[in-house]
Amino acid sequence: IVVTNVPEYATYATAQMAVALLLEMSCQVGTHNSSVKDGDWIRSKQFCYWVKPLTELAGKNIAVVGMGKIGTRVAEICTSLGMNVLKVPHKIRNSDEYKLEDVLGIADVITLHCPLTDETKDLIDKDVLSLCKDGVMVVNCARGPVINEDDMAQALRSGKVSGYACDVLSVEPMREDNPLRDCPNTYITPHIAWATKEARMRLIDVAIQNVTSFVGGHPQNVITTIP
């Protein structure tokens, strides 16, 4: 049995969503759009106003945890925004890479792009959060269980974490009793980072190519062959 996959079909889409979530926490676009639609700008005595603080990302330290294809793309985008990228891979290979514990005290943002393994489950828990800078922002486009959601909810309510944005949860679809559901400064999308039209078309096209290549005797994107 030849087993194949479709690699990298959502690399750009997922990286785009991660940065979109970071920008939403920083620029508060949705909050201010709702405010304007509710008539607050009509009632304003000034030409501008803001209802939540706005954050400039240039010069901020961002820890990119997981330096695969998606994490690498996120790092490239964040570099172009003027951020200082701290690369945190699973295995240290280069001198410019860090361990997670090395960056907790200096990271203004932590963005997660690592696989879910026994080692990464609850990677971000209350002990790790206690070592983070006050007001750190966290983005999770990896897997829900990489975050301990009860601990994150507590950190959000205390203000230790100023914003948590995620596209994944520990249980999907979302359960009614998820601790993040009613937390302040939380931004949750329903596992759609992969789901741009372009990424879905790429997924189907490559899957068809995989079958065609197998039938033609030249399998591509082979993971393994099971005897």
User: What form results from the Cα inertia axes?
Assistant: globular
- Strand residue percentage: 15-25%
- Give the N-terminus to C-terminus distance in angstroms: 6 Å
Determine the number of helices (DSSP H or I, runs of at least 4 residues): 8
Rg calc: 20 Å
Task: Count the beta strands.
Answer: 8
Task: Give the overall average pLDDT.
Answer: 96
Class per helix and strand makeup:
alpha/beta
Helix percentage: 25-40%
Name the strands of the widest sheet in spatial order. 3-2-4-5-6-7
Low-confidence stretches: none
Order of helices and strands: EHHHEHEHEHEHEEHE
Explain what you see:
This protein has 227 residues and is of the alpha/beta class. The protein has helices at 11-27, 29-37, 40-43, 69-80, 100-103, 126-130, 149-158, 197-215; strands at residues 2-4, 61-65, 84-88, 109-112, 136-140, 161-166, 186-188, 222-225. It is globular, with a radius of gyration of 20 Å.
